[in-house]
Specification:
Elements: H1 5-20, H2 29-55, E1 63-66, H3 76-82, H4 86-95, H5 100-104, H6 116-130, E2 135-138, E3 148-152, E4 155-159, E5 171-183, E6 186-191, E7 197-202, E8 205-214
Parallel strand pairs: 1-2
Antiparallel strand pairs: 3-4, 5-8, 6-7
Helix pairs in contact: 1-2, 1-4
Length: 215
């Protein structure tokens, strides 16, 4: 992607004003990070949509990787690097009196895993992307993280990880793909055509699960 540091700097200032109705000088580090992430999402949006459309073709096979943990780490620096904008962003922010590394440090690690299993799952996803394989990672979006490990009085304890307290800039809510999950109740199997049985659910507590997609 070809964009000059001057244009990038101006776009960054405009994004801060558009998103938070404040000047760059008055913006908090969190606001600076979100503004820069929103710029990256906009630069990547067309390619992301085109890739998703190509993957969804009936003849295209896809890999679905299910894991209870994913430990992908922080994304903003990787996106800037993959879009060829890392040096441009660094120079642009320097012109504005900011340090890119300070802005990158604001990003929180998604609380979707904390061990080797999560790192392995994310490594598989990185490998699929590297070779151009149509791959999807499927897991659970934990509101307070899988758990956060700490030591208190010499003992290891597990604490909640409030990683979503300020939202998560990389996820896109897909309410049109929500599904109903039924808890409790009882199931009745009713015969249908060709000898198959169809499940009928009664007295259940239905919970709608909304799909969240990260890019």
């Amino acid at each position: 992607m070809q964009i000059t540091p001057d244009k990038f700097a101006q776009a960054f200032e405009d994004e801060v004003m558009r998103s938070f109705a404040t000047s760059l000088r008055s913006a908090t580090p969190d606001q600076q990070f979100v503004a820069l992430a929103n710029m990256v999402k906009r630069y990547n949006a067309k390619d992301w949509a085109a890739t998703k459309q190509a993957y969804d073709q009936p003849t295209r096979k896809q890999v679905y990787y299910f894991s209870i943990e994913f430990l992908p780490g922080r994304f903003l620096g990787d996106y800037l690097l993959n879009l060829g904008l890392l040096d441009t962003a660094r120079e642009a922010l320097t012109q504005l009196g900011l340090n890119l590394e300070d802005v990158l440090a604001v990003e929180v690690d998604p609380g979707l895993g904390n061990g080797g299993l999560g790192r392995l799952a994310s490594a598989f996803m990185d490998a699929m992307a590297a070779v151009g394989m149509a791959g999807n990672g499927n897991g659970l979006r934990y509101r307070y993280g899988l758990f956060q490990q700490d030591f208190v009085n010499g003992y290891q304890v597990e604490l909640p990880d409030d990683w979503l307290r300020n939202g998560y800039v990389w996820e896109t809510r897909k309410e049109n793909r929500a599904v109903s999950v039924k808890f409790g109740g009882w199931v009745e199997l009713q015969p249908v055509r060709q000898g198959y049985l169809q499940a009928r659910y009664h007295d259940t507590e239905d919970v709608w699960l909304c799909r969240m997609m990260c890019r």
